Amino acid sequence: MMEDGRRDIKSLTLSELKEEVLSLGEPSFRAKQIYEWMHVKLVRSFKEMTNLSKAFREECGKRYRFTALFPVRVQESVLDGTKKFLFALEDGNVVESVWMKYKHGNSVCISSQVGCRMGCSFCASTLDGLERNLTPSEMLDQVYAITRLTGERVSNVVVMGIGEPLDNYENLLRFLGLLTDENGLHISQRSVTVSTCGIVPRMRQLAQERLQITLALSLHAATDEKRKRLMPVAKSYSIGELMEACAYYFQYTGRRITFEYSLIEGVNDTDQDARELAALARKLCCHVNLIPVNPVKERDFVQSRADRIQSFKNVLEKNQINVTIRREMGRDIDGACGQLRHRHMEGGQDAESIFHN
Ligand code: SAH
To answer: Which residue among 95, 116, 122, 217 has the greatest number of ligand 1 atoms within 8 angstroms of its CB, and so is best to mutate?
Structure first.
């Protein structure tokens, strides 16, 4: 972004940064130094870059914007230690990120947009529409800020917070490049998951990038008719087209697809729904992740009962589908995407009671 005429320095690749540094008459190794301060040491300002001269740091401050998110709220789950962060961006907008501790390492869930325009009927992120895209540096900074605040290394990143990542494609790709760059935090591509509501042309484009990231498809229904009722995007792309795009992704990358399926009582959780889902999943190299739907106050969806979820899972397993039930992390802290931001914007009593717990 060039809003005030200054380039966003944390969104530049190392080679772009080298060009910048050379154009300022500095030796190219300065680029590596700055890059390391930003992407390895995770500093929050030019001031902290102590191996650069004061004059050069001031020059950089005049020429470049230095994105640094500010934590507005942090909530910790008493149930499982999950932490939810509400970050303020420089323009006053807020986004949420979640930190989850697992046996195999720490996982961070980040937002890709401020709001969302996809309109899924069970999702809180879309209630206020789309405000704007996040820049690559704003996506990175969610990971960086959380690394600093927790003092622990992040091993997995999932792009499953607020927003539709494939609706912000160019910035997403730049973000992925920087996040996995060997000169930066160097998070393995295999430890990154991007979740989409199913924008078919973008899924195909992503396949052609031949990254080793996991693509998760938010399916939530196994027939077009049902899916259209839950997700407006289903009116643009049929399940048939989605399955072809998934097969194409697997063909290009060799990466197994994940289907996400949120179970909503009386809507998509019968054994017949499970059989239809199994029929789709059987044709692909995929894994099904069942998510007990997280109730959103503004919507009247109810979570499927535990025995229904188990029965749904059993049908899939009988059909040799690889399936897991997502552990609900941070239920007590509004874990579902977009809820914290939405309440923050609503203000008032509701927000107060959450923020003080
Ligand atoms: N826009 C992307 C990523 C963000 S949502 C996508 O659609 O995939 C991450 C996942 O959470 C998606 O599968 C989404 O459908 C699901 N989700 C959203 N609201 C939910 C809720 N209230 N309960 C359970 N899952 C929800």
So the answer is: 122
Measure Cα distances from 251 to 77, 215, 258 in Å: 40, 13, 15
Atom 10 of ligand 1, nearest CA residue = 160
Average pLDDT over residues 200-219: 98
Q: Is 286 a known active-site residue?
A: no
Q: Give CA angle at 290 (118, 101), nearest 5°.
A: 90
Distance between CA atoms of 122 and 220, rounded to whole angstroms?
10
For residue 292, tell me if it sits in a domain. yes
* Beta bridge mates, 101: 106
Protein residue whose Cα sits closest to atom 12 of ligand 1: 218
Domain that residue 171 falls in: 70-353
| Selected residue with higher pLDDT from 69 and 4 | 69
Instruction: Report the chain's mean pLDDT, rounded to a whole number.
Output: 93
State how many domains the chain has.
2
Indicate whether 22 and 161 sit together in one domain: no
Does residue 246 carry a catalytic annotation? no
Q: Are residues 225 and 176 in the same domain?
A: yes
pLDDT at residue 212 above 70? Answer: yes
What is the Cα–Cα distance from 268 to 123, expressed in whole angstroms?
Answer: 15
- The residue among 313 and 351 whose pLDDT is bigger is 313
Query: CATH number of the domain that 169 lies in?
Result: 3.20.20.70
pLDDT at 111 over 60: yes
How many A from CA of 54 to the centre of ligand 1?
Answer: 46
For residues 222 and 326, state if they share a domain. yes
List the structure tokens of 79. 């149930």
Q: What is the pTM of this model?
A: 0.94
The verdict on 169 and 58 lying in the same domain is no
Nearest of 55, 58, 33, 56 to residue 43 by alpha carbon: 33
The reported pLDDT for the residue numbered 260 is 98
Residues with CB under 6 A from ligand 1: 120, 122-123, 160, 164, 195-197, 218, 260, 262, 291, 293-294, 296, 336-337
